[in-house]
Amino acid sequence: MGDLLSQGSYLSAQKIGKGAEKFIYQVKGQEIPMHDPRLKTGVGLQYALSDYGADHMKAAHDPFFKDKDSVGVKEMKGLGILEPVSPTDMGQKKVALFKLLDIYWTVFDILGVCDFGYVPRSVGTCEELLEIICASTGWRTTWFELMKLGERSINMARIFNLREGFTSKNDTLPEVFFQGFKGGPLDGQSAINKKDFKKAIKLRYELMGWNPDTGIPTSAKIIELGLDWLIDEVKR
Q1: pLDDT tens for residues 57-73?
Q2: Nearest to 27 by CA among 14, 42, 44, 12
Q3: Residue 1 is part of which domain span?
């Protein structure tokens, strides 16, 4: 049993069979972290769209943008984050916000920067981080250039996953999150509306410059990002 469970819940459930898959919470084979996306819908979008499966550190969490006094709204205007959005909202503003946050957090990953060091998670500003990058590399870069770097990384990972057999069908959440809470103070509340979720995923594809039906990066987006050497990968 220990050998079986050491392979993770996804592979374990496949080997057990008999409907065991219904009892595991995973995205792309990666277990869901502790943060329930029914209360943080942006986190849910990131779980579903992460190229390596559910990860609570794929972007900042929704409460950092819940009102006009939230640190994310006050300190990230330079990246186009201008308005608060409710943590449980699944509309177009939430989708656009988390598209930016996905790219921003990817820049952190590329640089090896601690996610807890800068806004919206902490007190270090975007401007201070840019100064540190310029000072340490001697490269007079800009946030425009850095965000394009993050976008290239996301698209390359998307194309890699496409080659390995992942499709838009993998960009989803376990069924339990489309159901309300059972018991406790939120009994029957806060289910993610599946129709709204699917619309949000489709809009996210469009905002990224991907085919809205397949989630495959378009040739135009690939050329824009200087990744034209990957065009043949998306035409297979």
Answers
A1: 999 999 999 999 999 99
A2: 44
A3: 1-31
Q: Report the pLDDT value the prediction gives residue 158, as an integer from 0 to 100.
A: 98
pLDDT in tens, 2-28: 998 898 898 999 999 988 888 899 999
- The number of folded domains in the chain is 2
Pick from 7-21, 160-174, 184-198: least confident: 184-198
Torsion-angle region of 24 (φ positive above 0: left; ψ -120 to 50: alpha; else: beta) = beta
Task: Identify the residue whose tokens are 């943008």.
Answer: 65
Burial 98-107 (b: 16+ CB within 10 A, else e): bbbbbbbbbb
| Selected residue with higher pLDDT from 187 and 39 | 39
Which DSSP string corresponds to 130-148? HHHHHHHH-----HHHHHH
**Do 24 and 40 belong to one domain?**
no
99: CATH: 1.10.599.10
210 and 129 belong to one structural domain: yes
DSSP 216: P
For residues 43 and 151, what is the distance between their CA atoms, to the nearest angstrom?
19
- 2 and 111 part of one domain: no
Do 154 and 179 lie in a common domain? yes
